[in-house]
Amino acid sequence: MCMNASCGSTSTVEWKKGWPLRSGALADLCFRCGSAYETSLFCETFHLDQSGWRECYLCNKRLHCGCIASKLVVEFMDFGGVGCTTCTNCHQPNLNNRGENPGLFSRLPMNRQHTNGESGMNVGKADLFSQPLVQGDDKREEFMPHRGFSNLMKPDNATTTGYRHDANGTHESSPTPSQPPSLNMPMAALPYSLNFATATKKLMDAASQSHTVQSSASGILQTPSKSVPGTPSGPGTSKSAQARIGRPPNEGRGRSHLLPRYWPKYTDKELQQISGNLNLNIVPLFEKTLSASDAGRIGRLVLPKACAEAYFPPISQSEGIPLKIQDVRGKEWTFQFRFWPNNNSRMYVLEGVTPCIQSMMLQAGDTVTFSRVDPGGKLIMGFRKAAHTGVIQGCGLTNGTSNEDTSSSGVTETPTSVNASSCPAQTPEELKGLPEHLNSNHGGSSLKKSEVNGVKDKKRTRTVGAKHKRMLWRSEEAMEVRITWEETQELIRPSPSEKPTVVVIEEHEFEEFNEPPVFGKRTIVTSRPSGEQERWGSCDDCSKWRRLPVDALLPAKWTCSDNVWDESRCSCSAPEESLKELENVLRMSKEYKKRRSGVSQTVRTEEELTGLDALASAAALGDTLGEEEEPATTTRHPRHRVGCSCIVCIQPPSGKGRHNSSCLCTVCSTVKRRFKTLMMRRKKKQLEREEIEAAVAAAADQENKEDGKTGRIDLNSDPCNRGDVEAVGVEEKDESEKGEAGGCLGVAQADDVVGVTELEGEGEKIGEESKGSS
DNA sequence: CCGGTGCATGTTCAG
DNA sequence: TGAACATGCACCGGT
Questions:
Q1: N or C: which end of chain A has fewer CB within 10 A?
Q2: Is residue A471 part of a domain?
Q3: What is the pLDDT of residues A96-111, one digit of tens each?
Q4: End-of-domain residue from the set A384, A406, A433
Q5: Which nucleotide is at minimal CA–C1' distance from A58?
Q6: Is A452 contained in some domain?
Q7: Is residue A671 within 8 Å of residue A766, measured between CB atoms?
């Protein structure tokens, strides 16, 4: 009997042997419906050899099968699974080599389920049962493992398998091809889907009949974590609920042949939610980390060949077919699924993915996941941001029918979190992670970095270094941006009209805002000779600088009238305080900007140190603020006076005599201790700022007016300058975090205008201490 | 001139 | 070593 239920032919006359296999054998082909049945269809990848050997077309290993006696599909269907074993080479199921009485054995699907101890591994192959061979222009086409789609690629194809599902999820075969099965509805949108669904149902049916291993076919599909207990420890295998586990997909020809990097990865917790919350069965298929090309404007997503052939409809023409895929928000996208000839092979791509990628706010390094909904076979495209926090992005469930995500879906996540990049309620940790995904490191995954990124570090360095068109960044660049982001958090304020909604996720409170954040006002931190720190802010109206508490956070719009800390200067009419120290800092920032322009990345740090020296000299000599004046070279700290003998200023020029990283002298010990204290203090201040933010949010609705009214050096108006200064601060910070590194002394030389001057203050204080101690 | 398309090429990695 | 894949780039058509 032709296993194509739409055909149902039982006549052997209608079976022809004529489909040439690579091995030279011929496949059985139904004359009526064109469905072909070859041994490989039931033994996954093993082709019938005339001598009784089967050749795995994946690994070309030849294994003898004792079940080849029958030339009729039905016999393979019923008995072909005799003691299926697994190919020791490629782990594809194989028939054993004993000619045992086939009647004693259960049906194929169940046997296949235990072929390698992974029940899930062997489910869902029934789509193979109704496969008219598609003779494409590509010789490889005859071995295309997914050709079973072909009859379903044509909605009006008479060979469309008709299976009807009742409310219980059971099915019955449609006796005639003319009887349109109900599942043709989804097929109209996804012509190929029925094949999956049908295949699945067939397997389910087979499984239920065999009443063995699997008690529930739905369980096979629904809960990979449960149905795949024996999943080999692929990358990231862990019992931890937080571990992102790569599991070989349950279905698809050659799916276990897929590289682990394409295995859908999800945590046990996600799986639990998937299985527990969804009514539909989600079958994770595969995932792919987006490359720069994938995420680029060109709009072409390169699909892993094996995945494309295993899970997507077969295509014989290069132009391919339109493929409808629903995203996790329920929106359906139509991509062109096609391929290009490539080195006697094919390169599969999804074209037109740019809008989808953009809507998901994905970038290179993020991961897109492909899943399938059963029944129905609808393809679902999800994604996972590459944030180091491992947060699954885009799992927002949008409607009742599509609240399925891909491998990573089902995880409860509020929609706002999708817009992490613009959500002010994000914790600093989350926000830190955002830029890091540019660095493409999946947190929570134990995958090796190269697998996670899809790009080797070595390659990344090379490509980015040599060709700046690549979007992948070197780690140092990413680090720079990451820290800049951290510092940026100090400027972010909630929208003044916004009141946060506090949600608790895993015992952590998160504030959610509907409105995007606004940027707060920049301030600078200075230190008095006594070591006391103070913050300065500029009035938006009169541009006068006002002394503020060191932990003050100003809204974007801030005027003297908002100066609640100093009643004597809460009006623009109040005189300005001394700016002598402040000017030094500002001047230093300007010098940095000048020096950094045009400086190559590789020598940047060194040159900046030189710049610091020059600035220090200028400051020490008490020269003017003339911009074009070239200061003399010294290592003295710019804000220190002539004759200052602090730890910074006593350093000899050009780094000579600088303490090394292992130095344990009193000065260095003090610096180290101070630095630790500083870090703790900054964390504390961060918390305090958040509180203050709420207090000042109401006043932050006005735009931050550009400074410069008075011609004074502007800290707020030039983002480029700001970036420069920030970058300097980053590097300085990085330098200091390297330890003790090199510098325990260098940390005090420069700082960001936003808060990093604390380090500078530290340097001063330390210097004073050292002075005192010496 | 610009953007899209199709293919070529270089690199990486698994077998 | 060959397959897979990331991306460059030449070509072509539209504006």
A1: C
A2: no
A3: 333 322 222 222 222 2
A4: A384
A5: B15
A6: no
A7: yes
